[in-house]
């Protein structure tokens, strides 16, 4: 077995002497030199080319871990063992990152140092093992760096998506206002102009009078459709009166359009919420009920909006056929739709929680949003239940 030549790099003379005496008492181990600080360790390692450098932490003139990097760059076949006073686990990770073979606490040197050195001496392919360990450590570092980069990119993408969603809401609000105030007012003016005409021309030309009456009916229908589209884009009640009024108006309209019976229950103690929270809750209910109507084959649904210890809770439940193939949102094989993805992202941006349970007996969607601060809700809208049907 070849002798393992060791460079002892330690600031304190007493520690260097103790290590020298410990090593000298075992065959196959030889101290070929000593160093007293970080730069000295690098210089002597280049000169002596030892098999192992025992490098103390901390070290003057040059940080011990920087010294490791320099030694490994010049002498890739030389191994470095770090000796220090701190906890073994964090120091071992730091030592491996720097390129060292390992870390030994000084308090355990009498027990662990010589076996570690003998393991080095007795390894049948020591240099290959070291190269593999270094390569593995470097790979782990690169993986961690890449993971951090991906996390940062993902966070940037989420922030961009958040800004896009806010811009979308503002554009929906603007379009709703334009439809309500501009186009809506033009239709009102048109109806005002047409209303006297049936009586004025009725006796002379009944056919023209009927055409005008039919046109007035179409204007009324167009006005209703325009109001519906405007409120679906962004209900004015959401800004003017708050969440409950907007939800009531929406479920009433949905019942008229689709025949879906909706039970709406809102906690009577619920107050006005921050604008973004109210918008998010409304969009969750809107998207969920639209999915119930289009896909579940259910004839009824229940909406619950209440207060919890974690903030405001929203639950939408139906007794339809469930979501085919669904087990959980975490199941990577299940491809969720754009609507659910949108709900997830809205809730994530507000640091809330989102859960869906679905099966043959129906689907339950639950979201909880943290709320900071609120303002009193107008007393006329503190109602707690509404049932709607055909």
Give a brief description.
By secondary structure, the chain is an alpha/beta fold. 56% of the residues lie in helices and 18% in strands.
Give a description of the structure.
The structure is a single chain. Helix 2 (38-48) runs parallel beside helix 3 and helix 11 (275-296) packs antiparallel against helix 12. The protein has helices at 13-24, 38-48, 64-74, 88-98, 109-122, 126-194, 197-202, 206-233, 236-240, 243-258, 275-296, 338-349; strands at residues 4-9, 29-35, 52-56, 79-84, 102-105, 261-266, 300-308, 311-318, 353-359, 362-369, 385-388. It is built from 12 helices and 11 strands. The longest helix is centred in the middle third of the chain and has 69 residues, at 126-194. A hairpin with a 2-residue loop joins strand 7 and strand 8 (311-318). The protein is 56% helix and 18% strand. The chain is rod-shaped, with a radius of gyration of 37 Å. It is α/β, with parallel strands linked by helices and 390 residues long.
In helices, the fraction of residues equals: 55-70%
Amino-to-carboxy terminus distance: 93 Å
> Would you report the number of β strands?
11
Mean pLDDT score, rounded?
79
Largest sheet: 6 strands, mixed
The helix count comes to 12
Across the major sheet, the strand order is 9-10-8-7-6-11
Identify low-pLDDT runs.
373-390
Coarse shape: rod-shaped
Measured on Cα atoms, how large is the radius of gyration? 37 Å
Look at the helices and sheets and give the structural class: alpha/beta
Topology order in helix (H) and strand (E) letters: EHEHEHEHEHHHHHHEHEEHEEE
Strand percent estimate = 15-25%
């Amino acid at each position: 077995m070849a002798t393992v030549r060791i460079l002892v790099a330690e600031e304190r003379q007493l520690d260097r002497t103790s290590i020298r005496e410990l090593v000298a008492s075992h065959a196959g181990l030889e101290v070929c030199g000593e160093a007293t600080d970080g730069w000295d360790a690098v210089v002597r390692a280049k000169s002596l080319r030892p098999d192992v450098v025992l490098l103390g932490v901390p070290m003057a003139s040059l940080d011990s871990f920087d010294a490791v990097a320099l030694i490994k760059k010049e002498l890739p076949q030389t191994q470095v063992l770090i000796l220090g006073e701190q906890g073994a686990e964090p120091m071992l990770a730091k030592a491996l990152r720097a390129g060292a073979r390992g870390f030994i606490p000084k308090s355990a040197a009498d027990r662990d140092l010589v076996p570690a050195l003998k393991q080095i001496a007795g390894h049948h392919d020591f240099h290959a093992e070291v190269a593999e360990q270094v390569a593995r450590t470097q790979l782990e570092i690169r993986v961690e760096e890449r993971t951090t980069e991906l996390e940062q990119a993902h966070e940037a993408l989420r922030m961009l998506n958040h800004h896009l969603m806010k811009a979308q809401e503002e554009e929906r609000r603007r379009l709703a206002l334009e439809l309500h105030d501009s186009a809506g007012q033009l239709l009102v003016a048109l109806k005002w102009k047409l209303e006297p005409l049936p009586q004025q021309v009725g006796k002379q030309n009944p056919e023209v009078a009927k055409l005008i009456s039919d046109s007035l009916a179409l204007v009324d229908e167009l006005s209703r459709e325009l109001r519906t589209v405007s409120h679906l884009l962004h209900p004015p009640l959401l800004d003017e009166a708050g969440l409950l009024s907007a939800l009531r108006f929406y479920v009433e309209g949905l019942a008229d359009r689709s025949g879906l019976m909706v039970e709406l229950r809102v906690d009577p103690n619920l107050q006005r919420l921050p604008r973004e929270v109210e918008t998010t809750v409304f969009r969750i209910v809107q998207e969920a009920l639209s999915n119930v109507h289009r896909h579940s084959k259910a004839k009824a649904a229940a909406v619950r909006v209440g207060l919890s210890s974690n903030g405001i809770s929203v639950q939408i439940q139906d007794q339809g056929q469930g979501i085919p193939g669904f087990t959980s949102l975490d199941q990577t094989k299940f491809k969720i739709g754009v609507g659910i993805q949108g709900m997830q992202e809205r809730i994530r941006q507000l640091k809330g929680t989102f859960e869906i349970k679905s099966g043959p007996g129906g689907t339950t969607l639950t979201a909880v949003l943290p709320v900071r601060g609120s303002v009193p809700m107008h007393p006329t809208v503190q109602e707690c239940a509404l049932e709607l049907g055909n």
